[in-house]
Records
---
Amino acid sequence: MSDWYQQSENEVLEKFHVTKDGHTSEMAAELLEKKGENVLEGGKKKSTLQVFLSQFADLLVIILIIAAGISMFTGNQESTLVIVAVIILNAILGTVQHKKAEKSLDSLKSLSSPTAKVMRDGQKLEIPSKDVVPGDILLLEAGDLVVADGRILNSYSLQVNESSLTGESTSVDKSEMVIEGEVPLADRVNMVYSSSLVTYGRGVVVVTGTGMETEIGKIATLMNATKEKKTPLQVSLDQFSSKLAMVIMIICGIVFALSIYRKMPILDSLMFAVALAVAAIPEALSSIVTIVQAMGTQKMAREHAIIKELKAVESLGCVSVICSDKTGTLTQNKMTVQDVYVDGQVLRPDDIDIRNQLHRYLLYDAILTNDSTIVDGKGIGDPTEYSLVEMARKIDLREDIIRDMMPRLEEIPFDSDRKLMSTKYRLHGVPTLLTKGALDVLLDRTTRIRTSKGIRPMSDEDRKQILDQNLKFSENGLRVLAFAYREVEEDETISLESESDYIFIGLISMIDPPREESTAAVADAKRAGIRPVMITGDHKITATAIAKQIGIFEEGDLAVTGPELDAMSDEELDSKIRRISVYARVSPENKIRIVDAWQRLGHVVSMTGDGVNDAPALKKADIGVAMGITGTEVSKDAASMILTDDNFATIIKAVANGRNVYRNIKNAIQFLLSGNMAGILGVLYTSVMGLPIPFAPVHLLFINLLTDSLPAIAIGMEPAEKDLLAEAPRDPKEGILTKKFMTDILVQGALIAVVTMAAFHMGLNAGGGALASTMAFATLTSARLFHGFNCRSKHSIFRIGFRKNWYSLGAFAAGMILLNLVLFVPVLKRLFLVSALTAAQWGSIFLLAVIPTVIIQIVKIIREH
């Protein structure tokens, strides 16, 4: 039952057959047996072995296993060990990441308070929170964590912070009133919810829901039901793997059949097919993609974005919608006094003059009718109240000194029904009642107004001016408090009846201001083709005002509340969603629905959040972004990325990094595949022409696993180019293997194959098959090392420069050293089946190897001009 807030105290108590003295011990034990413990349950988990084995159900891994089998079959144990080591390492990394993700529900469970104060058998007891049952009478005090959902029976100035569930940063005043009609969770002031925190006062509550039947339990259920999605790169690599496997099998079959047809011995025919398969399989691809992503995560960590899952890095590159929380991400998560209205004027806080008696009375009211303070620069108490104390501190007025000078004589605490707080002090020797509260309530109790010219009766015109100013503040998303006072008799004991016949002093408006960098970050997002959307638990007017200030909300945009969203059909939401910039008063289900709607329209969605309530949406989004400072452990565990500075601008930096990582991965793949294409074309050419096999499988494994890996990693380290954020997000449906990409691979592979086969023929003419194979191997290796410079960027090497990426020069040098060790060290010469080379032959190899790079660079220069 979810409508407890619409029922009276007696109705709720009757439903649970309980009084305010609580359950009997026997009834509580019976209910605990029936309902189960007050804990959250997780979904059925896979064992570590199951997770580990599932890592091998990937086509790229299967291709690597085939490569290992082939290299073992051809007697290359060293190569087999390298490939097997790579496969196992990848599986271990995948298992560790999966197990980390499963911690999210464990963190949800750990939110439960270890103990709770309840009434049992008419006595106050402290029991483990897991033993709380529906119908228990829960006793709450300031500082308590609420351990179950409940309907309030008595509220004694009870205030609860529900930010982990609603996203609303300020504490909510609670009461026992019955609420008419349906209202969102954030407005159910007669209810408390599990995982929220009591910040002020005390209350008596009847428990209405425990465990999975609480609001936080519903969130846990949503998290269990939310499945993780594959990233666009994973989809592309899966498609590539399946296509590559099919092509390799077909071509190997054709080559094997052709060799048999030409009466070649079966072993020689098999060796041709094996050489072709090894040439085609990019053994290092999986490792290099992982390494490049890992390098990207390290760079992002230095820029305050911790990536939990490597696969999330490239997904950032195609984010087209960022759904951001307001409080703390776009704003400073700190209530701050914005404007002060006094003596008919709007002043900035800095303009208040302590020497002006009217201003001084307003300051006295603000810091004396106030229970908060600032200790070591940190506000303690209600955020709204300590924003008033901070305002006073800015003009060198310390609340602790004023309070010591003027002790509080009496008080009437804040009450959500009255919406007022009153305190009695002696100001300048005169007993005075100071009151702050909601303008609509206080203005009705005010008969006079104080101006710089003195105190006079309040006129209708005065009231109109004050109300007009309040409306202006409200339209700008400001929260407004009104201040008034009246002098009282020395012996008068203040009561609720005392709160009348006030003298109006002024208004103070507050806001959680936008971060300074938010406006620029939103502008960068829009320039990058990304749609920023604000999702908040705050009121629509406040949210819209902030969204306008930072550029999220523009002319013609829409703002909707959670209940308005609930009333929309999916079709209506799909038709309006591109115009909706602000969602206010939202529930966890609303957040998931918003993410789902954008994903339905083909967008890659990033969602930010810090509360328990955000966890399901963070998991549902393509990139879930949690706050590192204010975020709960649940949100951090559910997210793919954690911001250590809780800053929206960091997301945009991370998107730029994500785009660069994807571009570098794509360039590395182009480098690997174009080199492999040269090997494939070489093997096909010699097979068709009836020539000896040009490469031993060990040659191709040496190239693929050693000399190719270093340039590919260096390409992955290429810094971002300036035009990166000016481009639109890439289409996640567009695979890596586009027509242009495949054409470039084929053309570049053909150029390298031509010079490799030229060297092969030179070797055949000079000394037979062994020398021909050595020259082809050396030329292919060298040409691929030079080709690493071509694949750094779509621009020419002269435009991007050598010095921007020293790793590429280091990789080229290391590759050349490895090649020369194989060619000239006797032990390695025998191991890698190479013949001795003359200086002239080595010079020919070098000249042939550099030709493809010269041609490709000339074409790039022509395109640029």
---
Amino acid sequence: MAGKQDASIAVVVVGQDGKVSGWSEGGRLLLGWTAEDVIGRPVADLLADPPPPGFPEGYGTGPDPTGFVPLRHRDGSTVDAVVAAQPLSGPDGRATGHVMTVQRWGRRPVIADRAFEQCPFALGVYDPELRFSWINASSGRVIAHTEEQVLGRKYREVLPEFDRTLFPERDDKPYTDKLAEVARTGEPARLITVFRARGSDYANAWATSIWPVRDGEGRVRAVANWGFDMSAEYWARQRLLILNEASGGIGRTLDVIGTAQELARTPVPGFADLVTVDLFDEVLRGEEPPPASAFTSGDTITLSRAAQHSAREDTDRPPGTTAPVSHAPGSVAARCMATGRSTVQLAAEPGQGGEWAFGPGLAADPAHWPPGNPLIDESIAAEGLTGRITVPLRARGALLGVVAFSRRDRPEAFTADDLILAEELTAKAAVAIDNARRFSRERTTALTLQRSLLPQGLPNQEAVEAASRYLPGGTGTEVGGDWFDVIPLSGARVALVVGDVVGHGLHASASMGRLRTAVRTLADVDLPPDELLTHLDDLVLHLADDLQPAGRLQPVGEAGATCLYTVYDPVSRHLTLASAGHPLPLIVSPDGTTTPVAAHPGPPLGIGGLPFEATELELPEGSLLALCTDGLLGSRERDVDEGFAELRRVLSHSAGSLESLCDAVMDAMLPDRRTDDAALLLARTHALARHHVADWDVEPDTAQVPNARKFAVDQVDAWGLAEAAFITELVVSELVTNAIRYGEPPIRLRLIRDTSLICEVSDASNTAPHLRRARAFDEGGRGLLLVAQLTQGWGTRHTTDGKTIWCAQALPRPGPR
């Protein structure tokens, strides 16, 4: 048995008579027989079974150079062996017998040769010049050549298609270059190669290893490779990569057209060459799409092409544009929308070109197609297409439009798995588009509400020249709560206000409206800026209480706001301001220098319990005030301090009109993709001429009332307002009399000629008068009623030194000024 384990190759010489005439030592080691035992005996005696046909003549000389033969060992056992016979010739060329080589079946290299030859993987060996040295049967089937056809020929000569890259956009190195690189460097390589086999219209993916073959001295004598078709796994992975890209690339913005463009771009060029997305106009406007029952497959359906992306860039639609497109009755797109089922169109019958023979496994099996697919439609070839997948775009039971995935620059046909991928991409995009549609609807509603709550035009007043701008956040962002206002006050003064509510959406717009209304109401009371913000802070606290949910799981809205409230007096040219967490105004003097505001913003509204501080400044006539929200100053690219510096730079060129300056500020300050809304209010101050103001100190004696009346009448006549003299005389008489009787000295009378004729009487008392209905026999109580009836308005303004009662009457005619 030891001999059987040590046996190597046996050589047997067989004569023309079939008898053994020569026996090697290897024969004894392999079978246990000595030369004396077998010479002269028929070679068939060594066989364990009857001799196979043609044995030994020609045995092992056909297509298979070896033959499997069971032999008898001397000890009676059977030895599985491989036999090869070669003819012997004499000097005259006549056959004299055969030389047979015998080798145990289980020994190398025979079993290895059989294993390599029958390996299902493609195997090949090449010399350092990349000439074919050996290939197995699987490799021959892949390259469509036999071993005899390629031996000694160069790889590039046999397979020129492997000398180029199938997908240039991936920057792949040609496979032939990788073989040459391994032969040159001696470093093995592993790679995935994508190519189209000969006779195939489908690109196959092969997992390949290349390694050098070295001799005993370590020199590279050959290069070997192996590969197996992993197309099914490779294309499945590519589909997963596209889906993964879609997860992060579709639905990044809350914009309908932007999302449609993301859907069109994602599958190109890895999956399709051309993608179009058609949507109903209602979807683009943020409205509800038409119900599916509104049309049938027999109707012409008109949509808008929201997105189109192609591997050929010259065929793309300009970003953000749409174009009407109609789908005729009975068309594939119309049927898909009517039935809700996808359709695959192929320009040729599956199997033409060999794509099924070399396609990605079960993905190309027609048994995996859903009913009705694929549809062989030769007409799409006229459009230059090899295939098209049409998928209805549906979300939450609503039909939004239709998507078409087309192939034209690649010959491979769509597969059943490709249909699944197209439907997955469309389903993901449909939800994102529907979300964008719903957001667009809410944003439009909030924006409409907010614009209705903002001033539709700035009021007529003489204290300042004002201009304003408001821009909501960019598309895909919710409407914020920024607001501004210009409020005329008593005494020819004006209040300039800007504010910002925390949060976005309908809640922010509604809260903004409530705060703006509250500011106007408090301004009518003529509260100082710091007191006004204190009352506004209380209001925001109450709003926060109103937002507390009744149930544990109900959402809580955001509360809080910032506000800047300023009052400008054109008579004194004083500006009084207070801030609740809002950026302070920027003041540009007439000479272009920036005046810093020495004030500190107070806490934002809604904190509660903290004071607000008022600051008073004297401004030169013609000063420019810039009030804005933080959406104008800050962005992702710059902080608020940098925003202030940029605003100063733009306002330094303020020679033009305020309207053009507003436009310049918005253009310079706001990025293209802004994420917050922004409000800007510019005001250039005026000073009321001294001759438009007249005042007089009144002694606290009722005997001074006639003098006060005369002072008022004379001044009105001097202003050319004689028609207002009678009412002015009555008003002054009543207000001065009340101040003397019920107020405290000092008492002062002031007349102001502005857009109206204003009469003010101030005293040191904090007691505010009020209207009351006098009874029939009362001696007093009718004065303020007369004032209210004879003038456009009247009111009380509290000051640090007491109060001021004022009233205003319309100017009778535009007299000289």
---
Amino acid sequence: MLASFNATAQIQINVSGIVVEEDSNEPLTGASVILRNVNGRILKYTTTDVNGRFSFFTPEINGCTLDVSMMSFAKQIVKLDSVQLPVTIVMEASATMLKEVAVKADRIREQGDTITYTVGSFAQAQDRSIGDVLKRMPGIDVSNSGKIQYQGEDINKFYIEGSDMLGGKYGIATNGINHDDVGAVELMENHQPMQVLSGISFSDKAAINLKLKNKAKATWTFHGDAGGGYSWQPEGAVWDGELFAMAVMPGFQNITTFKTNNIGEDLSASATDFFASSRATGLSQYVSVSLPGVPNLSRKRTLFNRSALVSTNSLWKVKNGEFKAQIDYSFNRVTAQAANITTYFLESGDRVISENRDGRDRSHSLSGKFIYEVNQKTTFINNTLSTNIDWDDVTLGVTGSLPNDQSVKLPDYYVANKFKMIKRFNGKHLVTFQSNNEWESLPQTLNVSLEGNNLNQHIGDHAFYTHESAAYAFSIKGITVSLEGGVKGYLRSLNTELPDMPEEIPGETENVLNTNYFTVYATPKFEYWVKRVNFTLNAPVSFAHYTFDKALANRSEVYFSPSISMNWKPNNRFSMTLRGGTGRSPMNLNMIQPGYIMTNYRTFKQGVDDFYNSTSQNVSASFAYKHTRRGVFANAIVMQSWSHLPYTMEQQLYGDYIVYSYTDAKSDGQNLLAMGSVGKTLDFMRGSANVNGSFNRGESHLFSENNAVNSTSLGWSVGAKINGTPLRWLGIDYHIDFSNSQLQMNGVKNSWLSGMENSLLVNIMPQGQYWAKWEWRIMGEHYRNELTAGTYKNVFLLDTKLVYKLNKRIELSAMLNNIFNQRTYSYTTYSQLSSFESQRWLRGRELLFTITLRK
């Protein structure tokens, strides 16, 4: 008893402290801490937590030492006799030599329907954002705007640490989050985002989840760029700046970013909602005065801009749900110049019109979205309130065959509220309620000064849409049956006036029209799961009544559009999907427009003066294959569609003016599209390779100068890319695309016109204690375009960048773009009834100095 008492009463000493990195003073997580006695025997062992701290108790510290070690850092030995507790241990960076041991982490791992990519094994020295690394991962494609596809299909969710903060605006994350803050990318196949539908409704889409490193969790992370320099075309100062802040905490997430530049980077796409469906209000701009663009050439070479973007996105976890707020504002001022020759193919002889265009487009966009969501296994509730206010002012001066000046004002006001609730009963029964209400106003003003005459056109276009529905579904032994019913209402008013119509064009110049409808519908749906096969049948039927306020005769219609799909996944490596559908649908109500509308200084449109319906059919087949252990991903899809319209577009020239209208004649069209891709990891050089191709064939019919024109367009393309680090001091990223297109009209074949694009990035990373802080990047682009048969235009553009990494937080760089100072670019395109030759101005030589800061 006395011995027990003495042991209990013995004093215990708390040995504690923190382990930090020497340069940044950042805490190190997972460092090994060993307490040894005077004889070197291990007494205690632990590892540091997420804050770099450690702690344990021992009865004696005299003569004891702390051995602290961690990969990539020199081992530290601390004598406890000579320090004061708690102790701070500073770790110095050092290479860790492994003798006769090879350590290899799997670049890609698979567990069930989840594929995990290790970010560090795909990242290269020149990468900045997680989007740059995602582009290197086989099976994943990322556009410049940040949109992600997996195996040729759009993803349906983008998560950060399991939370959907950004919704469809995840481009802000892919182009903003520093890849060094992300440890792994999880790709979840067959992802059902609504838990209440799990096991009841099948999904063939995939989702992305970013797993952050510990240093990026439960704290704010920041990084920013500030750059300035000089440009030779346009001549003057240039700038580029960005500030990105992110917080990922247990109950709160936020991403806020600010960007501004005039170096040709388009910021407007950064806030695009990739999950957004088309607006049910259905309004579209009639006026089409736009600045000249340049196809087949990178936007950074052709965009003369002054741009700014501010975006803040927050998520709060409240009780059983989440509240999200997304607010964005963007500004773009763009100028462009072009010299064009347009040739119209006519039976009476070709008509040639020359233009020299010089314009400016200034746009503002303000949007907000506020979401409350509960996503549980028995309940799903989502209410989304969104609004968009856009202003777009365009001025365009034209010299040549028909000199003029144009100015356009295109504001757009939109507000919508969408509510959805799903309740699950007894595990297999679902009840759903939905309510969707949208309102939009799209006024348009066009002013044209032409040969001393002024033409002024104003368009008032307003619409309101409502959709209320309820549904019931139940599931028994792999069979799910559901029935949705609801009503839709639509009110739209169109008012256009053009007081001074050119004398050459006969007809009405005003449109006063109300387009309203009321629809009652029912959608039975049948799903059947058997082993690894899913069958889905949809059979929507609706009754609609249309009224036009005496402008047209009122009418009632019945529509039926069944579709069927089958998905087969015999194993985790292979999947195949077949789809087909047919249906009858109403025409686009924007086409009901008996009078003329001026779309630009020499183009007019006249719609139909009656109500039409169309029919269509479509079939498609797709497959996907993956072998994650070997790093192989492949996909392909073939789609064929047919359309049958009771009206046909007609083109007519009146002097220098061109008029597009519709005539009462059947028009059948069809389109075939096939594309595929194969990707493979190249582990020997920490890289990957991809080969892709596509083919398209389309048939359409229209009238030109009262003559029928049957046209067939053909096009195909092949491409390949490869990236990696074949040597420790050398990184490469190469991409090539080759395309060919042809247009046939009434059996007469035009020449095939080809185009080729090559791009190469070489990153030289010198080795050695001093030179390791330097990088030298060389980027080149080559464009070879066929202007006419046998006549080619070659453009070679070269950039270079020198980078000095002062430390892990500060980076300095100098970049010289378009070293050869290429200033123009020419090309030719063909449409059904015309050819278009153009010479465009490019951004000239540009020197930019940048400092980059990271926390």
---
Amino acid sequence: MKKHHVNQTLKLSLMAALVFSNLSWKNASPKHTEKPLRITINGFTFEDLNRNGRLDKYEDYRLPVSERIDDLISKMTDEEKASMLMGTGMPGFDGLTPVVGAIEGRVPGAAGGTYAIKRLGIPEIIVADGPAGLRIKPIREKDKNTYYCTAFPVGTALASTWNPALIQIVGKAMGNEVKEYGVDVLLAPALNIHRNPLNGRNFEYYSEDPLVSGKIASAMVNGIQSNGVGTSIKHFAANNQETNRLSINEHITERAMRELYLKGFEIAVKESNPWTVMSSYNLINGTYTSARKDLLTDILRDEWGFKGIVMTDWFGGYAGFSSLQGGTSNVVAQLEAGNDLLMPGLPAQKKAILENMKNGKLSKAVVETNIKRILELVFKSPTMAKYKYTDHPDLKANAEVTRSAAAEGMILLKNNDHLLPYQAKGKSIAAFGVTSYDFISGGTGSGDVNEAYTVSLIEGLEKGGYKLDDELKTLYTPFAAKEKAAELESRKKRGILALPQRLPELDLNKELIAKKAASTELAVITIGRNSGEGGDRTVDNDFNLAADEVNLMNNVTEAFHAKGKKVVVILNIGGVIETASWKDKVDAILLSWQPGQEGGNSVADIFSGKVTPSGKLTMTFPVKYEDTPSAKNWLGTPASNPENVTYAEGIYVGYRYFNTFKVKPSFEFGYGLSYTRFEYANLKLSSKTFEGKLTASVTVKNTGKVAGKEIVQLYLSAPHQNVDKPVEELKAFAKTKLLKPGQSETVQLTLSPKDLASFMESRSAWVAEAGTYKVNIGTSSLSIKQSAEFSLAKELEVEKVHKAFTLTTPVNELKSK
């Protein structure tokens, strides 16, 4: 299995490199520096954008934007219209390697831009990656300045805070860099559901649960866009694997789509109004998402009220990189479906658009509707407003934001005998594991950031006042540097989409480890994992620990426990790994995630007790990979080169499956320990019967000895006479303020009619069944502290919707009864 994935990656990377190097982007526009003239009428001054000496309607800012855009479209040629429907090419990849023939653009390393209509004075706007921070080229030719960006914690880390207010602050900091570096739209956040723990991009995404995903994404969008720049929520929808991502055909029922894979996007659209949505690569039930009218128009626009533009993912609608040469996506289907902008834009696509405009297969109405939405985006951009960006965002302040956010997202999975916080700063710590010395700030691909530095675990602990064993540092530091250099060189040789490889562990003999057990007070073992765009993880040596890691853990725990010393494991990972086989061997486990560039400092803040851990899992850690409900049909068939994948688990993803089918996890959804204790009391419902809405209030008290925050989770159990349902589903959550010892806070959580409802395909409606509903308030999905019941007197049809996602082959979905 592993060999197949490596070969596929090699093939994909080589093909990508060949294709990229042979494409030319004839439509790419250089920076337009000619200053437009100004016209003054009745004391108002206007820019003469087309330099014709008179005021055109589209130049008159006193008029409604819609009128101005209609006038502008009327002045465009067919050639300009076709060009406006596409991007201007792909200026670079990974912010480092310019594509041959492409014009670099105004912001080197950005992912692309819209077409500039020079004749009419309409500028290009710039879009750039990505979810963990802005990704642009940090060092530029003939320029002594640097353009580094802040590497924020990855998506799994941010979501683990369960704190939308904090995420909005992160987004505001991220948006500051977007605006001050001259970018108009950030291609983020990404909020696909964790269908399977092996997805190579799970680190970019938030959760197995759509409520958490939607609330965190909404907060991120609101934060970023508070700067007057845009976002592009992605990948819409059900982009849940990287293997054959451009061509995989997913067979999914409408109920699973609406309840799981669309729900987070619905929350984000309704609560944060993102400027753009990015359609995904995959096909759903035989049709590319970028060509699905039911997805992009019926649901996104008509049902949810989305007003912005939809753009494709880069090369979306092509069956694979090999089809880029000589072929084209189905541009008519894409544009008619409501996918306004084709990215990054190919000459063949422009040719196809012009041909179909001429022969009538692509109507004028469709073209002008798409262009109008694109121009609305351009008109509200910083570039159109001629914002004078500084190239000097507040990197110092943003580093403080990422440090605090990373610490709040860290999860204490185990803490025997209150080992942490560790106060013995005068005694030496033995740091084992190559990742202790090469800490991983974030994943690879478009989710990577070009940051100026990463604070390693060792640096963070030492800055925090801890003493690290010098002999181990002397052994590990050159070894880690050598292995990292070799890994990066290997990646370079394997091509553009090469995946990161795990660094091997330093082979330490038992005698040395025994010596350290005698001379130091505590052992820290860091386990590292990295992944990225273009490929998925494997079970062996990735989800499961590798033999060298098992050997290290066994030898260290045996030696230190023999001396009465303790062992802490730090998990520097982006997604789920196996923990059940080894968690009982160690004394404490801190899940630090991939915590961004200040990661080592953030770990030290938790380690020392400066920050009390308050993160909780937004996904399930299974005992073994095979317990994952999608494991049986992961990646699809044929296994050697998947073409079709069936979502046979239906709605039973993550805790919905584990709790309903009573499969014991290693660590359950919502789980996380603290340095203090909390008591729950006085659960009250606003009514015993549901009428319009219902509020649950519960009081949380800190009964421990240090200040801390608690995450209150509301799970709802609903009647299931008419439709199969999970035993419980998360319907609301809230995080308390920092509670001092003895301090209480009463939290209120509100349920709406749609929170009670399940989607009934036979009726194309969200329906809440009559009967008794149970509210469970817990510290995790398996730790319920308070419960109460209410009733719904009669069935409630909450929302009638369009019929969508008609199956092309039957899906025999998992049922609980």
